Task: structure prediction
Amino acid sequence: GLLRMWPGGAGLRRNFLNDAGDALRINLRCLEGYDVNEKLRIWAAIERQAGAVFGAGYTVEVTGLYYFYARLVAGLLRDQYRALGITILAITLVIGLMLRSARWTLVAMIINLLPVVVCLGVMGWLRIPVNMTTAMMLSATLGIAVDDTLHYIWRYRREAAGAVGASLALNRTHR
Result:
């Protein structure tokens, strides 16, 4: 097994091998701020390289807390993106039913998606990785935008229906 192959004294071996000498433990760490998918790609490459070094007689498996967290965050991000898509469809449907106008629904959706697109653009420009926190921030941004948009459009339509003119209706809506 690995115990026979391992150079150094028993004390050194104990730090890396289990008591039976058939499992090697290597602790890897990386700086925070890396994209979670990049961390997973690095760990997959390490797993492949270690497998090639030890050969077919050994199973190489990346485990540990950092690896667990990276996989957890990757899954959460995937779910957040899926949920964001479903949410956008649901919001479009609700706004369409509430406003009963395809034109106003399109305007509302452009207004609602603009903050999310701007946030993603700024994050990309500043090289801020999308992680669990930033993905949740995008959902919160969308929620605030939807609430404000509905109140604004509802009020504008009410003011404009009073035949006071578009300019005055806009001023009253702003106030």
Q: What stands out?
A: The chain has a mean pLDDT of 80.
